[in-house]
């Protein structure tokens, strides 16, 4: 995925011949900072047309980058979309506005299993956007073997030397290694984390790149045979680009995630942010967003209009355990940082 790609939504809407209609009833701007390609452009254009609110969308490619921007202060954004454990970190750090999310119309559309989760138990800060899992994707033109264990990825055979790629950040890679080694997430045990480091160091000669950008081209073109990646992205590459790729189902478990809409502290356009969140959760809009993004929806959708199901999108319906990523204690996070720093030295 590319980073910092500004989508000139207003210009696009103009190019599409979309003029604000007579029902426009709000003024102002809305600035969104979201995972790359995660918000359907046609939904943004529709929102602009219905409300008169001008929207810009910038993209990030890691929770760490987003957190750093908010910690620096005055981000200039009205909505950001962190994953679950980063919602907790941001809320605990006073980086988010209390928007009383649980009282918003959007929250009534949230599926029961995702209401008031551990990362926002009061329902004050977040409304879910999408959920899925992190695992690894194989290019079947280059690799013909089984994909039922993390062993294939973390302890590859010689034929895969220089043909594996990982992410640039440890946020999901280390939990995946912990799944393989049978270690609980966010371990504070230095010996357990040394086992994680030893595993990743042994894998390193096989790794061609540690990068979270341009993954679809790297694995789709065959530059690498395996890449750490996400379920819906793999599905879109397989369906839309006809790439011969397969999303692995490791028996040790995948790493779960859920991204949410939240409002940064000090946002200039909080009312517009809440309007957009409510708009995106409406049944038809949520369905179109699901069909565009290709990750599972934590809000109600119109199932007959949904493009993806178990038969044509098995990536979205894992057959192995999915363990949600956690917000680590400072001691555990320090160990994660040490492991990743030593790995990339």
Your description of this structure?
With 345 residues, the protein is an alpha/beta fold. Helix content is 34%, strand content 16%. It has 12 helices and 10 strands. Strands 4, 5, 6, 7, 8, 9 and 10 form a 7-stranded mixed beta sheet that branches. Helix 6 packs across helix 7. The longest helix has 15 residues. The N terminus is likely disordered.
Could you give a short description of this structure?
With 345 residues, the protein is of the alpha/beta class. Helix content is 34%, strand content 16%.
Q: Which stretches are low in confidence, meaning pLDDT under 50 for 5 or more residues running?
A: 1-26
Order of helices and strands: HEHEHEHEHEHHEHEHEEHHEH
Residue-averaged pLDDT: 92
The percentage helix is 25-40%
User: What fraction of residues sit in β-strands?
Assistant: 15-25%
Give the overall shape: globular
Q: Treating each run of at least 4 consecutive H or I residues as one helix, how many helices?
A: 12
Biggest β-sheet: count, sense, barrel? 7 strands, mixed
- SS-based class: alpha/beta
* Beginning-to-end CA distance, first to last residue: 24 Å
Q: What's the total count of β strands? A: 10
Give the C-alpha Rg: 20 Å
